[in-house]
Structure formats: C-alpha cells, structure tokens
Amino acid sequence: MPDRVTHDHPTIETLDATLGRYGGTHRPEIRLPPTDAVPTGTVIRVVLDGTEYRSQIEAGSDGGPVIRGAYETPRLARNPGTATDALKPWVDERDLEFGRTVHVDVIDAGHAVGLRAPGEAATYASTSSPADSLAAIAEDLEDQ
User: Fold this and answer.
1) Whole-structure pTM value
2) Distance between CA atoms of residues 61 and 77, nearest Å
3) Among 37, 89, 93, 123, which residue's beta carbon has the most beta carbons within 10 A?
C-alpha cells in the first residue's frame, strides 16, 4: 500500500453511516451498518481531519457498531470520564444535523477508519495492522 492514500483509493472501503444522538443527550454517535471491518468491543484508530484518535467501538441498539467519541489515547477511549472528545467539535464544525450521512473510510479493517462529511475528500497515512503479540503488549502497557 502507498504511504498515503485518498478516500477513493481502491484499497479503501467506504461505508455510509448515520449521525445519531446518543440516548437522550446531545452527544453525537456515528451509527455504522453491521460490518466485520469495524468490530464491536475493540478500540480502533479514528482519523478526523488528518489527526488520529482512538475510539471504543460499542454495539448500538440495533447491534451494529457505533462510534461515540474520539480520544487521544486508547486508555481514554476505554474510560473517557472527563477526557476531551474530538468527535463533537468535528460534527459541530461541519454543522451536521442528526440523521445525516457520514462517510466512514475503512483504512485498515478492524484497526483504523477515517470519518468524512458528505462531499469532503480525505487523504490518509497508510497503516498496517499491529501483530497480535505486539498489540497485546501495547494493551498491557496502556492499562498500567
């Protein structure tokens, strides 16, 4: 894969997701269609405007994966508490309304996605999946 890829590169799969409201709050969530490319119960990289964040992928009310925040580290994604969430400002800057489509570019299935508003273009740094043993070591270090 090249060092940088655009959203329309053949190696990038684009999913049409929906911007929803999380529960009775004004917090946004990105509701994805059911897919193995974004598995629930995992922390993945989420790229917003060229900046990489981490997100805990949860199951929505329909069982499909949802992104409810974008945080600086995997630890903050798992336990956001008072951590700064980059997803809401990203939504607000685009003046997106609940119910709108959001494009989710699968950069590395199970590990990295990028978010785009309709009509936006994006370029991503190509990534490779961490080896299972290295990922386990990294998770252990992050939990300490």
Assistant:
1) 0.85
2) 20
3) 37
